[in-house]
Amino acid sequence: MASLKEMRNRIGSVKATQKITKAMQMVAAAKLRRAQDAAESARPYATRMASVIANLAQGVSGDGAPLLLKGTGREQKHLVVVATADRGLAGGFNSSIARAAREYIGRLIRDGKDVQIICIGRKGRDQLRRYFGERILHTYEIASAKTLTLDLVQPVATQVLELFEAGEADVVTLFYSRFKSVISQVPTARKLIPAEVHQASAGAQPDLKGGVYTYEPDEESILEALLPRNIAVQLLGALLENQAGFFASQMSAMDNATRNAGDMIASLTLQYNRSRQAQITKELIEIISGAEAL
Amino acid sequence: MAKIHFSLVAPERELFAGDVDQVDAPGTEGDFGVLYGHAPFMTTLRPGEVIVRDGAANRIFTIQGGFADITPESFTLLAEHAVEITAAN
After folding, report:
1. How is domain B4-88 classified at the architecture level of CATH?
2. What mean pLDDT is predicted for residues A232-236?
């Protein structure tokens, strides 16, 4: 049985931990709101771009279509971009993305494909390094930037495009966590190259009043200008969703930790009071029986 | 006169959305102005100024290139690095 002093120290340390987790939870909640706003305000651009590309893609589905859209026709060389957070203490957030990526990469390797990896965020790299250390080309530590901008993401997009143009990557897949709601983030894989054309967004055709689109310059040139930019935009969107998801996940993880600490304090305090009372009773018995013996 | 719905979106956020009289934009193959009822038109943009005219008020934005999608009723401008020039009048 631990001494009373030891138990007091124990309770004190759990209380200190609880204060920290409580503070982290509140900070995460505040940051979550900002991250959610940022993710929301970036959405119009991404959706508009997707629908414009979908519209254009219908017109150039032949041989003239840019390679970024129709792919190289090969599937041998895969590039996997894994976006996680730079920091932990967020429940299973980083692990679930890394696990999804790991399963995917493992499958590709078993099929005899060449796989290369680009990591965004330290945590993902730490988890993948154990399995695929020699395949990781580069790690970008931009996931925890205070405000994510297109400029920050551009180097990643540039490297992806360079690898694609050098013939080092036929298929590029992005792993990130889709922010479904505060309590649910879903690890998601998205094909960056060849570009996924969402037919659903193409269905929302604007009313042209019988007119036909004029293109300046021609459709192919516009697509060729838009597709590389779309990669950066998709990366940015994914990182913004990741950031919101990270804070949401951290918030609920810290909420759990705070509650657990509370339970622990309650049970430790009960135990402490019991043994203190037991000691008092014991001392009383000793005094009384001592007095009776006289 | 009917107004055209103009929205200017940058990657990080939407800078302008609303009904205006006229929008001037710098296309790669020449500047152009858009009024309500413009023919459907898509073009890439070069760096320059976008002027949004509504009544007597003008709002001017600089963009570092981008993309324009014009239908008879609306004009969507996907801009890179758009910034509003304040007190331009």
Report:
1. Sandwich (2.60)
2. 90
Q: Strands A114-120 and A77-83, how do they pair?
A: parallel
pLDDT for B25-40, tens place per residue?
A: 999 888 999 999 998 8
How do residues A127-160 score in pLDDT, each as one tens digit? 999 989 889 998 998 877 778 888 888 899 999 9
CB A249 within 8 A of CB A241: no
Residues in chain A within 8 Å Cβ distance of B43: 215-217, 222
Structural domains of chain A, with CATH = 4-21+253-293 (1.10.287.80), 33-198+210-251 (3.40.1380.10)
* B37 contacts in chain A (CB < 8 Å): 209
Q: Is there a contact between B20 and B36 (Cβ–Cβ < 8 Å)? A: no
Whether pTM exceeds 0.80:
yes
DSSP string, A82-109: EE--S---BTBHHHHHHHHHHHHHHHHH
Residue of B10, B27, B40 with shortest CB distance to A211: B40
Structure tokens at A8: 């007091």
Q: Where are the domains of chain B?
A: 4-88
ipTM: 0.79
Buried b (16+ CB within 10 A) or exposed e, A149-179: bbebbeebbebbbebbeeeebbbbbbbbbeb
Count of CB contacts below 8 A, A vs B?
Answer: 84
**pLDDT above 90: percentage of residues in chain A:** 53
Joined together, the tokens standing for residue A80 give 């996997």
Looking at residue A61, its pLDDT comes to: 60
B13 and A226: CB-CB below 8 Å? Answer: no
Biggest CA pair distance of chain B: 33
Q: Where are the alpha helices (DSSP H) in A193-218?
A: 199-202
